[in-house]
Design goal:
With 105 residues, the protein is mostly helical. The chain has a single domain, classed as 434 Repressor (Amino-terminal Domain), CATH 1.10.260. It has five helices and no strands.
Length: 105
């Protein structure tokens, strides 16, 4: 992964941690506040968090890991998905009602 890509991920994690609150995340995950703080601040031992504990922190922050090449899938905000769903439904309703079909000459 490129450095800008890694920095974007780091920024997303730190933003979510600031919004959720470090103590709240520590309490939810059962990881001490001190260890979460050391992980967040890039301490030499990283707070000692293993992969599972890191996954718990990400989950508590409402974040998920998505592969860079998700086999044809696209990740979009829920609001965008909802808007596309409404447009598709309205289009289908119009086509099925016959109002959207061109007249044959």
């Amino acid at each position: 992964m490129s450095e800008p890509g890694a920095q974007a991920i780091q920024t997303a994690i730190l933003r979510a941690l600031a919004e959720r609150g470090q103590s709240a995340v520590a309490a939810e995950t059962g990881i001490s506040d001190t260890r979460v703080s050391r992980w967040k601040s890039c301490a030499p031992d990283g707070g000692g968090l293993d992969i599972l504990e890191t996954a718990r922190v990400l989950s508590a922050l409402g974040l998920t890991v998505v592969p860079l090449d998700p086999d044809g899938m696209v990740v979009v905000p829920v609001s965008t998905h909802s808007a596309l769903h409404v447009l598709l439904r309205d289009y289908a309703d119009t086509m099925l009602s016959g109002k959207g079909r061109p007249e044959c000459k």
